[in-house]
Give the backbone structure.
Amino acid sequence: MKKVLKAILWILVAAVFIGSFVFLYINSKEKPVVYSKVKPEITTLERTTVLTGTIEPRDEINIKPQIAGIISEILVEPGDKVKEGDILAKIKVIPDASQLSSAQTRVDNANISLTDAQQKYDRARTLYDRKVISREEYETAETTLRQAKKELEAAQDSYNIVREGVSRYNATEANTMVRATVSGIVLDVPVKVGSSVIQSNTFNDGTTIAVIADMTDLIFLGKVDETEVGMLKPGMTMEVTIGALDTFKPTAVLEYISPKGSTATGANTFEIKAAIEAPDSISLRAGYSANARVRLSGSDNIIAIPESAIEWAGDTTYVYVMTDSLPEPKYEKRRITTGLSDGLRIEVKEGVDTTLTLRGTIINKD
């Protein structure tokens, strides 16, 4: 019985040894590499780029007051359509103390001058009626009186302008009325009733009362990388995709390429502007995020193959052309001349035609 068990044990050890040897031998044998096969094809290749940006009105006009004061009334809100000359807001003037004092002094002096001129006129008229003075002296006194009256009116009007911001000669065009300088849509009203405002001058830009833009004249404002800016030219068309309007893809015409780059985002980019063609039935809003796809270059009716089928050796390119398929595929290395690439496929100018089969990528390697 012990001999039988011992024999069985040796048989099992021998089986394990032989099985391990066979397994290692089989796995040590190199199996053939299997490649995919590709055919050159006649197609169209184009190199495109996608620019990111926003939809913006061509011009945004900041409306500023002509005088300093406090907003007493706002007559518009964002989204309102306005015409040139429409009143946007009203300002209550807070007069400057020194200017008000000077204006009051001018009024007082004008009153004194008028009183003096009136007295001289009355005296001259009495003397003229008695034939004591000439008509010329009388007319001089009369002229002086009229001038004194006009000076008083002017002084009082200046006082009103300083104090109220309103002139009695042009009350309808008063500086206290902030009016639209262009027709369009109000995009923003950054002030509220009670806000203090100042006019634009040499030392500051002034307070913006409202921002108005013509929303029928829109542009795509985007950025292009320095590696591609040299391929863009004014007049090129691009297809714009707007995030908020998936089904609407307007065409834009490139109008402007900045001559100076910016590194604000870390990369050197250049600003571009393209005029958008949109029908009146489509309502576009300022600030919509958008992408613009522009064709940088392209070729039609050319022979193209997948770039993965190409072997690179410096500036030289090769492909492997199938010369025999049985019993196993055989390939011949052939030099080719390439052209335009779209990142996936590449143009072949010389070296292959559509009748050939090429070796592609590895699809199986055990």
Summary: The two ends are 47 Å apart (CA to CA). DSSP finds four helices and 20 strands in the chain.
